[in-house]
Structures are given as C-alpha cells and as structure tokens.
Amino acid sequence: MNRTILTTALSIAFAISANANTVLSSALTAPDSFNLTGLTQVAFTKGPMTVPASPNSTFTAIFDAGVYADPNNVFGAGDYDFVYQVSDTGTGTAPGSQGIIANITAAFFSGFSTDAGIDTNATAPTGFTAGGGVPLNDNLSSGVVEFNFTPNITVGTHSAILVVETNATNYTTGLLSAIDGSVGTATAYAPASAPEPGTLFLVGAALCGVGLIKRNRKSAL
Predict the structure, then answer these.
(1) Among 17, 46, 77, 177, whose Cα sits 20 to 30 Å from the Cα of 86?
(2) Cα–Cα distance, 106 to 108 (Å, whole number)
(3) What is the rounded radius of gyration, in angstroms, for the C-alpha atoms of the chain?
(4) Range list for CATH 2.60.40 in the chain
(5) Which helix (H) or strand (E) holds 190?
(6) With contact defined as beta carbons under 8 Å apart, do 22 and 212 qualify?
(7) Helix 2-18, helix 197-220: angle, nearest 10
(8) What is the third-level CATH fold of 22-193?
(9) What is the pLDDT of residue 96?
(10) Alpha-carbon torsion angle 36, 38, 41, 42, nearest 10
(11) pLDDT digits (tens, 9 = 90+) for 112-154
C-alpha cells in the first residue's frame, strides 16, 4: 500500500512539472519592441563564437548573453528575459568572403511561453551596446527562436539587442548561433522549469512515504 502511494505521488509530481508551461507558437512576424528598464541581472556571459575553420569560415563573431528578471515582463513581473547580441568581427578564411551574418538563433525554448523582439531603450543593459542591426522578422520553431536580418549584419557592426521574454523563473545552459555560409555557435542561456507549489507538496508527500516505509521496515525487524 505504501509503495503504491509513493509511486502514484511521484508520477503525479513529475507529470505536473512536465506540463507546467505552454508554448506560444509564432509565425514569421516583425519583432516586437521592448523598452527594458528596471532589470535585475541574474546571469551574464560573453566571448568569441566558435566558427569551424574547415573547409572555410565565412565570418568571425563575438557575443553577449544575459538573463534578467524583468518587472515589466509580458508574462509576469519578475519573469526572465533572455537577452543576446552578436557582433561581426571579420571575414573568416573563405576566399572572397564578405563576412556577413544573416540569421541569429537562440535555443532551447520548448515548453515555455515566449515573446521575441528587440530592446529599443537608449540605455542598454550592462554589457550590451544600444542600437545595431534590426532583424526583419523573427519566428519560433521547435523551441528555437530565429532572428532574420535583411540587410545582413556586416563586418564591424553588431545586431540590435535581441530579447526573448518568457514565463520562466529559472535558467540553464542554452545555445546561441550566428548563421550565413558558416555557423558560429556559443554556449549561452535558456529557460529551465521550476517545480510548482503543488509539485513540491506531492514530492514532499512522496518523501514522507519513503520515511514511513523505512520506519515500518525497522519496526518489523
């Protein structure tokens, strides 16, 4: 009987956690404009993007990525914004390469509500640079948010500050990519699920069940 209760409680707990959020799918649309203010920085990283040199790279790039608790987040005050920026630093090794970047993607957002766009505030979050190339459109597909640039990002310029607002309150490792003839990648950030109060209650009940089973076993010895 105790084993049955324990198994059921754990099964329900994991089921609730897995279905805690829903995805707002988007078609190819113009990016929304966000005026990011009052943010609390949760995490930040920056560095070079890895662009394979074989057979030939067509650009070089660096990136900035951050996670911010946003009091004005469209899904809830304090929910997390995932913020990215890519700077085009060179032409790479391919003969005749113009060093352009046509697309920037961020993963992984499956299971979360999302709203993608750019930061239009004249004062950029710490670590980022205001202004830059604005994407023509963006879309969400299979948990990957894509920003498409026409005109492309060129050597010596950078993208606008790209924003993905979510209903997440935790984060984990994500993947940022810049794409044209080559694909440059970097380890960035992505949303992570957090147990809801009901989930925590059920897990707590399950752990109590474990303690009860152990106590009964000791009593039987």
Answers:
(1) 77
(2) 7
(3) 22
(4) 22-193
(5) strand 183-192
(6) no
(7) 160
(8) Immunoglobulin-like (2.60.40)
(9) 87
(10) -100
(11) 999 999 999 999 999 999 999 999 999 999 999 999 999 999 9
